[in-house]
Amino acid sequence: MFYVSGEIPRVTPFEPGLPGQVRRTADGKGWEPDTLILDERWLAVNIAGKGIVVFSACSHAGIVNVLTHAQKTFAGTPLHAAMGGFHLSGPNERIIPQTVDAMKAFDLKLIAAGHCTGWRAMSALANAFGDKVLAPTAVGKRYTF
Asked: In this predicted structure, what is the pLDDT of residue 1?
């Protein structure tokens, strides 16, 4: 079975959402800021003998907020992996150091960072976690647990 989250609580002081993001107004005639993208969700599965694998879309809520929510949701079960985009490119490059540092607390065995993570964040993740934990992902890549 898979678990689909509800709204992701914003608990970190450094993950601002997605600067510049907008949505249609309720009347459908205009646009309004939507930096928090509150309708974003994450997906998880408990892999026997390993722990929780968290699938994040683009982590507009911030990957640390996502992982914190997953850890609280599955209290007592370790987080094994984080997979998805971490949206640390462009305007969010400034939070790479805080994000990488905060991710260490989750003791992840696999970080499969994808499309919107950005090359600077990939480099910082590689320096912090090494090749045994960081596994850049792409369409068609297969992971076996």
From this structure: 87
- Kindly list the distances between the CA atom of residue 57 and the CA atoms of 40, 44, 66, 82, 88, in Å, as whole numbers in the listed order: 8, 12, 10, 11, 13
State how many domains the chain has. 1
* Predicted local distance difference test score (pLDDT) of residue 56: 95
Report yes or no on 17 lying in a domain: no
d(CA 52, CA 96): 24
Contact between 23 and 32 under an 8 Å Cβ cutoff? The reply is yes
Question: Is 70 part of any domain?
Answer: yes
With beta carbons less than 8 A apart as the criterion, state whether 53 and 81 touch: yes
Domain membership flag for residue 141: no
Question: pLDDT (tens digit, 9 = 90+) per residue, 113-137?
Answer: 998 999 999 999 999 999 999 998 9
The token duo for 11 is 């608990």
- What's the sign of the alpha-carbon dihedral 96, 106, 87, 60? negative
pTM of the model: 0.93
Among 78, 81, 5, 7, smallest CA distance to 43 is for: 5
Please check the confidence at residue 139 and state whether its pLDDT lies above 90.
Answer: no
The domain in which residue 107 lies consists of: 34-129
Asked, for residue 69, whether it belongs to a domain, the answer is yes
